[in-house]
């Protein structure tokens, strides 16, 4: 009797919790987007917004986990040969395309070959055709559930590159996705959602694929479970921030990406709206042109670095969601070791000493920034203020983003308040910054020893050895000071309390699978 | 004059866009590291050709109505411009019509009651209206009519051709925003031109004949005083049809103004070139129509 009563009591308390957690099926989740997607041609014509939408539709053999590491997605498992040149993908058995056709190894092989065809104009072709190093030499299907890819040489980032979002995750697409002329018609893929209605400049809608065979377990980046609870997801194009916030308050949208806690406070903290945030793998900092006559002096560069107090700078510039970090390796990366935590340190006395040694006489230094990305602008203003306090005279030159990007490409700046988009592996971050400036003016750091270490990191797969390489590179970068890394920005999203299951994550892109709306 | 104007605009726009820093191919890639992809994209976009060659190719196609394909959206520019123009026109034309219907009588009333409280009130109102920034007024409407009163949707657009009632609901606030501001502009012109006409002898003669004030106003004063206002309406309409970009941004309307601004930031050369040519053509066309109808109001003017 007592036992029954106890069990009943436990059930009574557990039931509401259990009911509250159970996802609701159906309905439409509405998300604000600040500009229309470019196209549905994943990996061919894209930008960040396009990737965010299309990653609900397409899937590749591998995908990124929550922590940025690469895991099997359409593959059940991936085996790498001892020489690192052969990859054997065992496919999951119950996967269907959006048109109902079962996915087989023949489809995976055909898709890979299509991506490797220059006529497809895949943006990531250079990563796999030998231009940058590794070349896919053959793609075969020895049986209906196996794909074997052979490469010209071992590369640590081969699977990581396959899973890249801007590459469309090297999606496996049904052959009917392509026009006879080789261009992409509409991706018929395997994702939890399929393309719905798209009204240019107004909204993009995706529809749940009810035959989607989700992996078991929980949502894990783009490589875990992906249940399509909502019938539809609609991204509504809203250019104006104030209009977007009004739409959120009124309930015309459910999720507003980019809304911070401070902005929610400005809105009067409506009771039915909440902000969720996560630290991302983006890297924000000040690029320094080491070929500039003034900035070529390492003492001046280090003086500037020591003049900056990273913690308050990161807090204010990122709206409270970023994390101070002096390393190119993001704090959320599994490679962010104790050695990576070392930075310059805020040291006014050292600044004075270095400025005197550098012979700096207060001449103005020009720093580029833009208004399109408020975090970059706020970061520039903070840096200017802190530098001024230390006796370093920085003038801001505010440009539109295309112009600043152009100046970055040409290396035409003294200082530039810049942000790199999230890269899941430290080698990818260093790839963006490291290289011969004479050949590539956009490169920030041209230390030959660092370049040699990077080349090593691209080949070695062993994590411990790679960690050692990255730790050494970080120390070298601190010494050379070609860039002052300041923080990893955050990704914050305002949403209605009716939305459940939504979680921001280090790669920033919103994920609407595993999300539902309580009406 | 229209043809030389369009040709000059074509050259100026093409040249200026190429002079502005920023590469549409690079914008597409962002900070991603891929010189090979960049070179390939530039080649596909024709950006690897010398600029005079790019201009001649574009001009040759533009002369037959082919403005090329958008770099950002890979769609024919002409289709994008037409869609954008329809949205803009659905806001601008009703707004200017409402503004004219309100402003002309109010302006005439203010002139008739010159130096009275009525005149002061109308002039004061017009100054307030034309001083209001359109984005601020639009946001006020969003807040009070959209959020608090929940009368109209905040964002989005439904074409009245698809659903008339719903389409009108989406247009009310943007149309009101534009109409209020333009009413302020037109009241001033209507008032001053009516004051000019009221000083003329034939108005005194009309009154002396025993005509009532409304008869004097409608039969004698209106036609003559309306001509300058008509010209201003043409200028306003032509200018707004080129894109009421602020209103389109605040209310998330996919009009031609927003398309133009977005394309400038994306360095989408074909769209910018096509849009500016269209804007110029609209401005020239509207003002041509205004000039053609001018003699209706003022027979002294001959074409």
General description of the model:
The complex is a heterodimer of chains A (519) and B (303). With 519 residues, chain A is an alpha+beta fold. Chain A has 3 domains: 1-34 and 192-277 and 493-519, D-Maltodextrin-Binding Protein, domain 2; 57-188, Dipeptide-binding Protein, domain 1; 283-488, Dipeptide-binding Protein, domain 3 (Roll), CATH 3.10.105. Chain A has 14 helices and 21 strands. Chain A has helices at 2-21, 48-54, 105-116, 158-162, 241-250, 261-266, 298-306, 310-317, 348-358, 374-389, 401-410, 426-433, 448-459, 463-480, and strands spanning 28-33, 62-64, 70-72, 75-80, 86-91, 136-143, 146-151, 193-199, 203-208, 232-237, 255-257, 273-279, 283-288, 323-324, 365-370, 394-399, 415-420, 483-488, 490-496, 499-500, 516-517. In chain A, the strands form 6 sheets. In chain A, strands 14-18-13-17-15-16 form a 6-stranded mixed β-sheet. In chain A, helix 7 packs antiparallel against helix 9, helix 8 (310-317) runs antiparallel to helix 10 (374-389) and helix 13 runs antiparallel to helix 14 (463-480). By secondary structure, chain B is mainly alpha-helical. Chain B has 2 domains: 2-63, no CATH class; 89-262, MetI-like (MetI-like fold), CATH 1.10.3720.10. Helices cover 76% and strands 0% of the residues of chain B. Chain B contains 13 helices and no strands. Chain B has helices spanning 2-19, 24-29, 35-44, 51-62, 77-112, 117-131, 134-148, 164-198, 201-208, 213-241, 245-250, 256-265, 269-297. In chain B, helix 5 runs antiparallel to helix 6 and helix 6 (117-131) crosses helix 8 (164-198). Chain B starts with a helix and ends in a 6-residue tail after the last helix. The model of chain B has no long low-confidence stretch (mean pLDDT 87). At the A-B interface, helix 5, helix 11, strand 17 and helix 12 of A face helix 2, helix 3, helix 5, helix 7 and helix 12 of B.
